[in-house]
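Practice problem: predict the structure.
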Amino acid sequence: MNISARITDERVLDVRFDDASLIVDLMDGRTISAPLAWYPRLLHATPDQRATWEKAGAGYGIHWPAIDEDLSTDGLLRGAPAVTRAG
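Answer:
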């Protein structure tokens, strides 16, 4: 019997940015990159506000207190842009 199990750990290890992207390293070694334009609060935040983040949701989320932004690794892995409110 040949059984192979995928071992994944989708908890956040580190968060960083380049000029156009949000980059999230996961505990299992994967890296997620998403366009910064998908997250308007992060796009318009200062570098200091972006750099001040904390793990949330047992490590499966990221919270930026200064701009009240929350993202989950699940949403990032699905390629889901931020939900914006009209008006």
